[in-house]
Amino acid sequence: MTMKFPPKTFDYDEPPPNEMIIERVPRGSSVLDVGCSSGKLGQTLKQEKECKVVGVEGDHELARRAKNFLDDVYELDLNSGRMPNGSFDCIIFSDILEHMLDPASLLKSYRGLLKEGGRLLCSLPNVANWQIRLNLLAGIWDYEHPLTHWGHLHYFTLGQMRDMIEYSGYGIDSVAPRNLRIKLLGRLWPELFAFQFVIQARKK
Q1: Is omega for the bond preceding 17 within 30 degrees of 0, making it cis?
Q2: Average pLDDT of 125-150?
Q3: What is the pTM (predicted TM-score) of this model?
């Protein structure tokens, strides 16, 4: 039987704001949310952290909706190499890098938009999670599971996440496991029990 993702079905068009990303964004900072979807994360940052938030989104309908919540939205194909304008205290890649053709090149290209001393915040799914390991032992690859979803072009272990971010010109400051169901296990054995990692980094 396929192991199911806790605690409910993941909605890619309306993802819930990642609380671990939110708590790492400095109050009053300028933020670039890359792959901002409908703008819910940025809306939360504006309301709770008094941030100025600019979004980048490739989907026309999602970009249109995000404009209702954010200070500005660039409708750009993230795989095209086109860039928004400005410089930012914080750049966020929340659940987007795994969908990109070349995530390392994307990280490199946005490096120039991050201010000196600014924060890069990335959240990435952990393909080494115990549920995925059990599925593989049973000969199952579930394309509807959020960690192995058909829309993902890349799959990452924690080591591969670190390597990609460092290769792209950033120094990693912290790595935090995210586990919605049993948080203690996520802290004790993060590579096995975390379903996602939130990584904070800075420009080298």
Answers
A1: no
A2: 84
A3: 0.87
